[in-house]
Amino acid sequence: MASVDSQPRFGQSVKGLLSDKVGSCSGDVIALTRQVLKGSRSQELLGQAARNMVIQEDTILHSEDSLRKMSIITTHLQYQQEAIQKNVEHSKNLQDQLRHLLK
Amino acid sequence: MAAIGDEASAMDNSARASAAQSAALNPASSGGGSSHVEAPEEAAATPPVAPKKPHTNSDGGVETAEEAVEPAEPDINELCTDMFEKMAIFLQGELTATCEDYRLLENMNKLTSLKYMEMKDISINISRNLQDLNNKYASLQPYLDQINQIEEQVSSLEQAAYKLDGYSKKLEARFKKLEKR
User: Pairing between strand B62-65 and B56-59?
Assistant: First the structure.
């Protein structure tokens, strides 16, 4: 490309040559930037990461829902344990009465 | 290149002046026959007024060439500045797009980590509550054994009640038999 540009273009003014050169340099800079972005493979990696995140999100939400249900069930178990604790304190008297009955 | 062009035009003017002087000094010697020769010389000495056309000048054996130049635009600096600014904005936009994608991914990861931290807190609470529950149920175990004993005693009491009921029925039957006699 440089050799083509260095060849003299007869019949073309300096202004035209300069504008062509500036345009080609601009195009080269743009192409270089795009090549740098393409070489970094950032689009592929980001796309793959976004896809994995979308797949994972459903699982995460389900897990969170399950954990919240577990915490509610644990709270209910605590209430039931407190009720059992209150009621089993009467069992000692009951056992003494039964022992007397069976004597 | 414009400076060289100016110098060349100055030299050209001086050459024309010298040619005109020489032509004026030797009008008679040239005569009519050489008028045709001089005419082309004058024509050669006086090139058409086209500063843009390149031509050669000879002064002391040194040939110089003037390059065709066009007058520079007065706002060329502004145009160049504008061009470079727009180029910079374009390149910045190209790179910013990828940066924004990375920022989006970073935000998504942060939100996911926050969610995992919440789930961790919930899990820790559940674990602590279940451990307390296990300890309390372990402390309830003697009571549960008592309940089992009570249940056994109640079942033996029930057996005794059934036996008593059967014995009382036998007694009633014998009493009635004796009463009939």
Answer: antiparallel
A41-99 residue pLDDT tens: 999 999 999 999 999 999 999 999 999 999 999 999 999 999 988 888 777 788 788 77
Provide the 8-state DSSP code for A95: H
- Which residue among B83, B130, B153 sits closest to A102, beta carbon to beta carbon? B153
Quick check: A60 and B116 CB within 8 A?
Answer: yes
Distance from CA of A48 to the nearest CA of B (A): 11
Non-local CB neighbours of A64 within 8 Å, separated by 6+ positions: B115, B118, B119, B122
If one compares B25 and A56, the residue with the highest pLDDT of the two is A56
The alpha carbon of residue A59 is apart from the nearest alpha carbon of chain B, in Å, by: 12
CB neighbourhood size of B66 (10 A): 22
Q: How many beta-carbon pairs under 8 angstroms link A with B?
A: 102
Domain borders along chain A are 14-102
